[in-house]
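Lab manual, section 2.4: Encoding a predicted structure.

Procedure: take the sequence of the chain (270 residues), apply the prediction step described in section 2.3, and record the output as structure tokens. A sample record is shown.
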Amino acid sequence: FKKPPRGSTSPFDSTALRSGLRTSTSASLCSACAQYMLTMTFVGPGHAQHDVIFLLYLRKGMNIMSKELSFIHQYIEPEDAGAGTTLLLHGTGANEHDLLNLGRMITPGAGLLSPRGKILENGMYPRFFRRLEEGVFDVENLLEQTHALAGFIKEAAKVYGFKAEGLIVVGFSNGANMGCSLLMQYPELFSRAVLLRPMMPYEPEIAPNLIGKKIYAAAGTDDPLIPPDNTQQLVQMLRTFGGEVTLAWEEAGHNLTQKEVTEIRKWIEA
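Recorded output:
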């Protein structure tokens, strides 16, 4: 048995997840599903909560698709015409189901594109790129996977019929670092970025033009994985490139709180 890597499988603490599930689902669940949620989602670690969230979407009758493209993924069609598309990038050890609930909470009505990272840490925990050790990234692999993921986004746009521009990218932890890399390498794809517990991924050789790009960086004052000065360095770099960065500190660790989810939705809707 290999111990799961540090860096939280899910972005939610139990309170945020409970609240999110209550507010985002109107249909009542059968007793078996409810018991599964109580015993697995809120108590047990691992992928149980991802599967429950996916189950909730199936129960609500949303049009979930997963065609054979270059990344394993889930795509949910927008509920509202012209609502746009949100790209969801999970953290280490999670999968393409993990952020669906969060995506619906902060971008209601939007289409959701959620790929699974191709890199397996310790042979079993999905990530979007390799790391050499805690907090030390394999930049060559990060760039390689960034280009691959950008190709997937364009591929998915053609298949599912959404525009490969003006996307909102939402990433948690490892996904936030990948989201930052995507924004710097392919700024034309995005209008906004929500980076949840991000770190400084690298300094690009060619400065990207991020003028007009709105970026929300959510950091925890008690995050054991990310030093505050690392977050500040990232924010300063993005501002140097012209990004309009909102840095929000929360008295929390590496996981998100319900308060942060509420504030992020307000920021997106502003």
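Check your result against the sample. Residues 86 and 168 are 5 Å apart (CA to CA).
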